[in-house]
Amino acid sequence: MPRPRLLVVAVAVLIGLGAARTAAAHIVALPTYIPSKGSEAIILEVPNERADPMTSFVVNVPSGIEIEHVHPAEGWSESVEGSTARWTGGSLPARKQVDFRLTLKADAEPGAVALDAEQLYDDGGVVTWPVSITITPPAQSPSQNTALAGVVGLIGLLVVAAVVMLSRRRRVA
Fold it and tell me: Hey, which of 13, 45, 79, 131 would disulfide with 115, CB 3.0 to 4.6 Å?
């Protein structure tokens, strides 16, 4: 009977890992940094938490950050004017997520900055979010693979723990 219990634990862990991502339920930037005096393509993961479809998305960048390029998103029209990037003409249903991408250049000193993001709706509703970005020193940009390595390491530890538990239970039985 230890196998069903192990299966329940494994499923619970996997659900927990998936829920942690959806529980964030706010706009997230990936990666979360831009090297000072450098550029970085940033993906903004945008969830729609309202019952109505989101019809526009706007990002305003602070001084010291420049929008180099606004990338297309399927079903949306993109534009840039000064420090504002805009995606219009699409429709994001309730409880769904879309990724918008833009390339930013940092001319600011290292430290934390916030992008101002706005989700717009046909009924005139606007949901505003600060999106945190860290400006890193030019020569010390962190690896983009750090988060992936952490997740892979955690999964590896869970697999090892499951194998150890199974081997101990077999010896006892």
Answer: 131
